[in-house]
Design goal:
- By secondary structure, the protein is mainly beta.
- It has one domain.
- It has strands spanning 2-5, 26-27, 40-46, 51-57, 88-90.
- Strands 1, 2, 3, 4 and 5 form a 5-stranded mixed sheet that branches.
- A hairpin with a 4-residue loop joins strand 3 (40-46) and strand 4.
């Protein structure tokens, strides 16, 4: 995933802010717990004051069993090892 620098902008939750048009979607591997293949993709930007994340998920219901901070977010279905999102920050 390439993470580009952006000026600060207001987060509305709709993904229609102009800076989002400056970066591409990245597909994220999914978990097949329910037997369906739900697509998930993400965009990320960073500024001098923060990191911005935009997700698009086809899931109807999102649940979590994590009960502590800083746990791995995604796991491989075959190896059960955490999946790392490799990011490169560009100025």
């Amino acid at each position: 995933m390439v993470v580009k620098q952006s000026p600060d902008f207001n987060v509305t939750g709709t993904g229609d802010a102009l800076p989002w048009t400056k970066t591409m979607w990245t597909d994220i591997p999914f978990l097949q717990g329910n037997g369906k293949k739900n697509k998930t993709k993400a965009k990320m930007l960073y500024s001098e004051t923060g990191i911005y994340c935009l997700f698009s998920c086809e899931d109807n219901t999102l649940t979590v069993s994590m009960q502590q901070d800083l746990m791995p977010f995604f796991y491989s279905l075959t190896s059960r090892k955490p999946i790392t999102l490799n990011m490169k920050f560009h100025h």
